[in-house]
Design a protein that fits this description.
The chain is of the alpha/beta class and 376 residues long. The chain contains 14 helices and six strands. It is 52% helix and 10% strand. The chain starts with 9 loop residues before the first helix and ends in a 7-residue tail after the last helix. Bound molecules: guanosine-5'-diphosphate (GDP). Guanosine-5'-diphosphate (GDP) is lined by residues 145, 147-153, 166-168, 173, 252-253, 255-256, 278-280.
Length: 376
């Protein structure tokens, strides 16, 4: 190992690098250092993947989950589950391989207790992915409202910058604007839509269809109404569209004379979370943040104690392992011989081994490390 220190400046550094390469040095590939650490057994695959998560973290909570994974908490949990299975597996193997010896048979009870316990632990991990997804991808939030209700103004107030165009003309926000914003440490993925109205032209039509689609996909709807006017037909259509979704209703333009009140049944029927704001004057925006925190129990995600899965690859393997557990249980109920049950139990071990990288294939390793940037 050698370390070269030089004077600053691009030319000098570039010259030194060229000289090194000319003399046989190789440039580090993306993720090279982390990959070597993994291949040399210093860290497992879970820890290697968490390096990417920490680098790419958009919020403090996300970085914190990544660091926890890097410290090996998830690996430890997976290894504990594996050990629990192995302890019973050893007995099964002995019974299968040496039926002639007088080894204590694995009692059915022991086996089914183990499968129940493993299933419960894996299900808990699988469930944590919902929170993990929120931490990693943000709460997919759609701001919806008829033209001029104040969608762009609200988006601006939230983003505190002029990315969304605020205008008095209808429907300038024809396509959608998407923006990440971290509120109270939680990333929101905000999507502003074109608003719902009778389609006048093709472009508008696309906007509306898209709005409907987005509403379907959204984790949270922020429906904004102009409280200085009575609810219009379009407003009613919007209320109908979002009635089954997790929704915060915003009564905007609180600075003007009010025509709609918070107690309006047409609104309370759809959501009891109704907030008065003035998007233009940025008044009441904090109340929206507090409501989101409350609605998603974000204060309850305890990153110091709970292990949270944030990676889809891990989640899929855990789901697969749960299926193998259930299959093993079914096989037991059907009174199948031990060696058949053992096949499914080995599947569980393999799925878990894939997560930590013990039995992982080269393709998967290459795919994972291709997500890294150079020299990390
Ligand atoms: P969008 O079409 O739903 O995106 O609505 P905009 O955000 O473009 O707002 C439409 C118009 O209403 C603009 O002229 C805004 O300045 C105005 N507006 C937005 N929020 C408020 C508010 O809280 N009070 C008042 N008085 N005007 C507002």
């Amino acid at each position: 190992m050698c370390e070269i220190n030089s004077h600053g400046g691009n030319v000098v550094v570039k010259k030194i690098l060229e000289l090194c390469l000319k003399n046989g040095a190789n440039l580090a590939e993306p993720g090279e250092f982390t990959k070597r650490a993994f291949l040399n057994g210093r860290i497992d695959l879970l820890q290697a993947e968490s390096v990417i998560d920490v680098i790419n973290a958009k919020s403090e909570k996300e970085a914190k989950t990544g660091i926890k994974q890097l410290e090996g908490f998830l690996s430890q949990k997976i290894n504990e589950i594996k050990k629990e299975i192995m302890d019973v597996m050893v007995n099964i193997e002995v019974t299968i391989d040496y039926p002639e010896y007088d080894t204590p048979d694995v009692t059915e009870k022991e086996l089914s207790d183990m499968l129940d316990s493993v299933e419960e632990k894996l299900e808990k991990l699988e469930k944590s992915f919902d929170n993990g997804k929120i931490i990693k991808e943000g709460i997919k939030t759609v701001i919806i409202g008829r033209p001029n209700a104040g969608k762009s103004s609200l988006l601006n107030a939230i983003l505190k910058e002029d990315r969304a165009i605020v205008t008095q003309y209808e429907g300038t926000t024809r396509d959608t604007i998407e923006e990440f914003v971290t509120v109270n440490g939680i990333p929101l993925k905000l999507i502003d839509t074109a608003g719902i109205r009778d389609a006048k032209d093709e472009v508008e039509k696309i906007g509306i269809e898209k709005s409907k689609e987005l509403v379907k996909e959204a984790d949270l709807i922020i429906a904004i109404f102009d409280a200085s006017e009575d609810l219009t037909k379009e407003d009613m259509e919007i209320l109908d569209l979002i009635k089954d979704k997790k929704t915060i209703i915003i009564l905007n333009k609180s600075d003007l004379q009010q025509k709609i009140v918070e107690q309006d049944e047409r609104l309370t029927k759809v959501s009891s979370d109704i907030i008065k704001i003035s998007a233009l004057n940025k008044i009441g925006i904090e109340k929206i943040y507090d409501k989101i925190t409350e609605l998603f129990n974000l204060n309850e995600i305890n990153l110091d104690q709970d292990i949270v899965i944030t990676n889809l690859r891990h989640k899929n393997l855990i789901t697969k392992a749960i299926k193998s557990v259930r299959k093993a249980k079914e096989t037991m109920e059907q009174d199948m011989p031990l060696d058949i049950i053992a096949i499914f139990i080995k599947d569980i071990l393999e799925d878990l081994g894939n997560i930590t990288g013990e039995v992982v294939t080269e393709d998967i390793i290459n795919e994972i490390f291709s997500k890294f940037c150079l020299g990390k």
